[in-house]
Amino acid sequence: MNVFFRKRNPKSIRAFSLVVMVLAGFLAGVPAVVAQAKPDPTALLKELDQLSDFSGKDFSAVFTIVTQKPGEKDSVTQARIFRRDTKKQFLILILLPEVNKGQGYLREEDNVWFYDPTSRKFSHSSVKENLQNTKAKNSDFTLSSFAEDYEVTSMTEGTLGKFPVWILDMKAKTNEVSYERVVLYIRKDRTMLLKREDYSVNGRLMRTTAYPKYVELDGKLLPSQILILDEINKGEKSQITMAEQSVAPLPDKVFTKAFLEQVSR
Amino acid sequence: MNMVLPRIAARNLLRQKKRTILLAGAIAFGIMIVTLINGFAGSFIQNVSENFAYLMGGHVFVSGSEYTPSGKRISVIRDDSAIMKSLQDAGVKWKSIAKTSQASATIIFEGRSIRQNLTGIDIVHSEMLKSRLALVKGSWENAREPDAIIISQSVAKKLNVLPGDKVIAQLQTVTGQNNVGEFRVAAISVDSSIIGSIMTYVQLDYLNSLIGLGKGEYMSLGIMLDRLDLSDGFATSLYTSMKGNGIQLFDRNAKQESTSTTPFQAMIREQNSETWSGTKYRVYTIDDVLSQARQIVIALDTASVAILIVLFAIVMIGISNTFRMSMYERIREIGTMRAIGVQRGEIRAMFLYEALFLALAGAIVGIVLALVIMGILGLFSFDPQSAIFLILKRGHLSFYLPPLRALGNIAIISALTLVAVYAPANAAAKLAPAEALRTVK
Q1: Do B170 and A232 touch (CB under 8 A)?
Q2: Which of A182, B89, B281, B372 minimizes the number of CB atoms within 10 Å of its CB?
Q3: Which helix or strand (DSSP H or E) is residue A212 part of?
Q4: How far apart are CA B121 and CA B205, in angstroms?
């Protein structure tokens, strides 16, 4: 007897049809639910940028960076950072090591100046430069501009540790941003960047950054601990911790060369 | 010309050999020191310029600047056909040319890293490179590979690499993006100097691909001439020729119109203060870049004149006193000469001749001594890694004494000696013969 054509009970057929219809309806609805849950990648990037944006206020904090290099003693760099995001200004004042104390970086419009108190001279620098002998770049301490600099080429779901994340694979919009390709791991339940991978122009992973700890400041989530791994020179890494963060107003003179010269004395 | 007085003066000097030797020795010592400083200053700029020309691969350079669509300025020569035509049109001779791109990179090998200046050049066809670099390991044959890298001994030691090892270079494109390249060590070269040891050579095409330049493009054209002193004339001819061919150029005379320290800095300032479309070129010489070094030469020359004056102020006091003593010792002789008809002016002239002969003898001995010392110092060979390498000529100290400078020093010494001796000579000339003859020593 053909099992596929055996006679069925009309009751069970009705029940089966009902189950199929409910299942079909459910399955049809799932993509719609998923689509609804998947945020617009650009909006997500903008939200991420917003977290580091203190426009309308001033931001200051002390960052301590411990850098490890194989075969070398750990080095500690400490810097006080002042930011005025409305005008895209920042001033980074080196506090440690003692030998570099008083050195500083000042951003005035599109120019970044490096000040050396020994020679009392300013020279051109860039946000793309590494801060002192660390794995951190000056741009790591400024407001991010992912939405402006990158376009999302793919957005997938994944898990990082115990957290479900959105994985955004991004390509630089111009050839003037530091990394041609960046992959971001953003927590799904709350917009927080957990991990970032930076790739070279020819597609090689250069740097992995993890953001394990956050603090809340003025209603915004800020990473209070950052780990940067050098993927090219394996074994080299920097750990950044943030303290004394504040959004108290800063005097205008803070963002001037004269201030840098004065505090460096 | 009456030769009696010079002969008497010479005889007087020889009569007091010990005193003459001491006085001439003091003059000789002073002029020897000054001549050594002059000789060092004379070769300083020459050696520094030649060493830099050697390291930078040219006496005259052409580089281009253009703006990216976002307004960032980058250094690039995309199409050099107009420059090559201008070189031909200029009708001037050159020894070799080198098209290069440069990038600052961190070279990494098994956890060790070092910052280097990568120079991209056509290694296979660069005769200049082959003549400049002596290889201690590896070969030029290895260097034919597209990912070849030639590093210096000190860099190889620091990274612990050998020919055949693969190193990673971390660098930035011309627009500032991070990039990574892999190179295979083709050869290890002898360190030519501290600066030479940070120069690392790679294939131009591969470096271009890493820094975002296309095939056939480059950053700087270096032109090596037969001699350094030809560079200014060559640059002027090339500049005129390029201008004639309608190429956009930065003004080579910008220095005269600004307060910049060097002509090269003036060109950079001009570049910073203006915008243009397309590529704008600058033509400059090694001297334009190093004109600050000329200030060191001026400082050395000024110091030598100051030393000359201080040394001789002391020596002149000694000479003046010695001649005054000599006058008293010879007072009866002067009285006798005056009594037999020698005129006052002739007595004065006799003393001045003595001073002049003393100065000339001392100066000539001093210069000869300085030349001997220069020759001896020139025999010593210095470590290529030493800090003074840039002022050396092929690893040796070298000196160049401009003849006019030497003659000038002799003239200054002679004049100062005559001034010092004039007072005692005048006193001797004014002696009354009878009084001089009565004087008992």
Answers
A1: yes
A2: B372
A3: strand A205-217
A4: 8
Q: Could B176 and A179 be called an inter-chain contact, meaning their C-beta atoms sit closer than 8 Å?
A: no
Query: Judged by CB atoms within 8 Å, which residues 229-268 of B form the interface with A?
Result: none
Size of interface A-B (CB pairs under 8 A): 60
Identify which has the larger pLDDT, B50 or B4: B4
Q: Which of A70, A200, A235 minimises the CB distance to B178?
A: A200
Q: List the beta bridge partners of residue B396.
A: B381, B393
pLDDT band with cut points at 50, 70 and 90 for residue B242: very high
For the stretch B322-371, pLDDT in tens is: 888 888 888 888 888 888 888 888 989 999 999 999 999 999 999 999 99
Please tell me which of the candidates B70, B111, B179 has its beta carbon nearest to residue A201. B179
Give the number of residues written for chain A.
265
Residue A17 has pLDDT above 60, yes or no: no
d(CA A114, CA A117): 10
**B125: which 2 tokens?**
């066809």
Best A232, A236, A237 residue to mutate vs chain B (most B CBs within 10 Å)? A232
Give which of A130, A182, A166 is closest to B106, Cα–Cα: A130
Burial of A141 (0-12, 13-18, 19+ CB in 10 A): buried
Of the partner residues B177, B179, B181, the one whose CB lies closest to the CB of residue A177:
B177
Neighbours of A42 (CB within 10 A): 14
The total of other beta-carbon atoms located within 10 Å of residue B67's CB is 15
B70 touches chain A (CB under 8 A): yes
- Percent helix, strand, coil in chain B, to 5, is 55, 20, 25
* Chain segment A101-110, per-residue pLDDT in tens: 989 999 887 7
Contacts of A39-42 spanning 24+ positions with Cβ under 8 A: A39/A166, A41/A152, A41/A155, A41/A166, A41/A168, A42/A147, A42/A152
| Helix and strand totals (H; E) in chain B | 16, 11
Place of tokens 């000038």: B408
pLDDT in tens, B46-83: 777 777 777 777 889 999 999 888 788 889 999 999 99
- Determine which helix (DSSP H) or strand (DSSP E) holds A17, and give its type and residue range: helix A10-37
Structure token digits, residue B158: 């620091």
Handedness of CA B392, B365, B416, B319 (dihedral sign): positive
Label the pairing between strands B199-203 and A237-246.
unpaired
- Partner residue facing A126 (CB), from B70, B168, B176: B176
pLDDT band for position A25 (cuts 50, 70, 90):
very low
pLDDT of residue A6 exceeding 50 = no
- The per-residue pLDDT for B289 is 74
Considering the entire predicted model, what is its pTM? 0.70
To the nearest 10 degrees (0 to 180), the angle between helices B17-56 and B403-429 is 160
What single string gives the DSSP state of each residue in B371-395?
HHHHHHHHHPBPPTTSTTGGGSBTT
Cα–Cα distance for residue pair A263/A254, rounded to 1 Å: 10
Q: Give one DSSP letter per residue of B101-112, joined into a string.
A: EEEEEEEEETTE
Asked if B271 has any chain A CB less than 8 Å from its own CB, the reply is no
Phi, psi of A117, deg, nearest 5: -65, -20
